[in-house]
C-alpha cells in the first residue's frame, strides 16, 4: 500500500484540532490505500464544520501539500459568490454565447489547470444556490464537473473534494454520532440572500459525502501558539530584513495582549495578521530613527502603559525576567541561576548571528528554527 504522509508533517501548521486532524488523516489513508473502489467518484469527499477561523481552510492546504506536493494545488471557490439563481455560471461556466463563455467556469478551469490532481475547496457551501449543489452532486456521483462554456467534462476522480461550512456552529455537536450529525445538518435552515429560509443540505446530498468532520472553537492557548508562530515566521523576519535587528521576541505579557485581541474578534485566527500589523508593524514605523541599532542585543516586545515597547533584555537582565514571572513567584538561587544561563546562551546566539542571515531573509537563531516567544522564560 502507498505510504501517505500525515497532514501534520508539512509546512502548514494546525493548532487545537487534534481530533479533527486525526479523522482527516484516517480518511485520507483509507481513500488512498487502494483498497476502496473510487472509480467514477472523487478520491475523497469531506464536509468540514466549524466556526470561522479554526483551521478548515488550512486543512485543505495541508492536504494539497501532503497528497499533491504543493500547498498551492487548491482549486478554491467560494459558494457565496453563487448564492443567486444563475450563479452557477461562475463556477461551471456560462453556456456558449453568454458573456464570459470564452473563459469557462472558474472552478472547472482551475481543476483543469491542475490536470485533475488537486484539492477542490468549496468555502461556505451552505450559501451556494441549488444549482451549485446540483453541480457538486454530479461530481460526487460521476467523478467529473461539466464546463458549460466548452461542453467538456473535467475529471475529478484523482481529486479530494473539501467543502467547508459554519452551519450549526453555535451548537455542541460533539455528542452526535455520524448519522445524527448528518440528520441535524440536513434539517438545518439557512437564510439566503433573498431573505428566504432554506435547507440547503438535502439528505441525498449528505448521503454522498464520505466524511463529515467537526472542528472545535480554538482555545486561548491555541490562539497564542498561532500568534507566536505567525510573528516569528513573518513579522520578526521582515523586521530583521529591514532593520538588521535579529533577535526580537514577544514577552508573555505582550503575547497575552495580542492573543486577547484576536480571541475577542469574530473572525477567529484570520484576524491575527491584522492585529500583528496594527500593534507591531505600525509601532516599528512610528519609532523610525528611534529604533535601537545594536544588533548584538536581545530585544523583547513588552506591553507597558497601554502600548508595546521594545525592551533591551541584556540591560534589564534578571529584573525583567523576574517581572515576567509575576510577583507571586518565589525567587530562589536555582531560579536565578537558570535565568542567568538563559541570558548568557541568548547573548552567544546573538553574537554568532551574521548579517548574511539578514541578506538571505532567513534570520535564524543558532541551532535551528526561530523559537517560540516564551522559550527563554523559565516555566
How is the topology of this model organized?
Blueprint: H1 18-31, E1 44-49, H2 56-68, E2 74-78, H3 88-92, H4 106-113, E3 119-123, H5 130-142, E4 144-147, E5 152-155, E6 160-165, H6 178-187, E7 190-191, E8 197-198, H7 203-206, E9 211-214, H8 220-243, E10 248-250, H9 252-263, H10 272-287, E11 299-304, E12 307-312, H11 313-325, H12 333-352, H13 355-359
Parallel strand pairs: 1-6, 1-9, 2-3, 3-6, 10-11
Antiparallel strand pairs: 4-5, 7-8, 11-12
Question: Nutshell version of this structure?
Answer:
The longest helix has 24 residues, at 220-243.
Folded structure, characterized:
The protein has 13 helices and 12 strands. Helix content is 41%, strand content 14%. It has helices at 18-31, 56-68, 88-92, 106-113, 130-142, 178-187, 203-206, 220-243, 252-263, 272-287, 313-325, 333-352, 355-359, and strands at residues 44-49, 74-78, 119-123, 144-147, 152-155, 160-165, 190-191, 197-198, 211-214, 248-250, 299-304, 307-312. The chain folds into 2 domains: 7-214, P-loop containing nucleotide triphosphate hydrolases (Rossmann fold), CATH 3.40.50.300; 220-359, Orthogonal Bundle (Helicase, Ruva Protein, domain 3). The chain has a 5-stranded parallel β-sheet. A 3-stranded mixed β-sheet has the order 10-11-12. Strands 4-5 form a two-stranded antiparallel sheet. Helix 8 crosses helix 9 (252-263) and helix 8 (220-243) runs parallel beside helix 10. It is an alpha/beta fold. The radius of gyration is 25 Å and the shape is elongated.
